[in-house]
Amino acid sequence: PADSETLGRATWTFLHTMAAYYPDTPTLSQEDSMRTFLKGFAQFYPCWYCAEDFRSDTTKNPPAVQSRERLGRWLCERHNEVNRKLGKDEFDCARVLERWRDGPKD
Ligand code: FAD
Fold first, then answer.
1. Domain extent for 29
2. Ligand 1 environment, Cβ below 6 A
């Protein structure tokens, strides 16, 4: 089975990429689907102590599903919460679309 690092890296890749391709102006139904997706994700993410902390963090900070920009920033902040907990560097959330959608500008 995947360890929590391999699983984590793969999962963040998926989540940030999904957020980077979320609509700029989602319909109410799309907002609802994203909230439901994240709720299910937090329930079934197969690293139980990770999922438990993620649930308490997202209860305090509910998903910002109003736009691609807001969702990307929200997810970046949740990831930074985990980075802080693990003693890793924080990521500059202004660069999240560059990292996960557009690629570096050079
Ligand atoms: P990762 O943290 O996996 O990041 C991958 C890449 O994402 C980085 O190389 C960087 O380019 C980019 N990145 C980094 N920070 C951000 C950000 N804030 N926003 C956007 N992009 C960013 N592990 C534990 O040991 N304990 C836990 O409690 C825990 N909880 C987790 C909860 C969730 C929801 C997830 C998905 C993972 C969790 N993990 C946890 C795993 C942990 O976050 C890392 O994925 C793992 O330690 C591997 O780290 P890494 O250094 O390879 O980079």
1. 4-102
2. 4-5, 8-9, 11-12, 16, 45, 49-50, 53-54, 76, 79-80, 82-83, 86, 88, 91, 96, 99
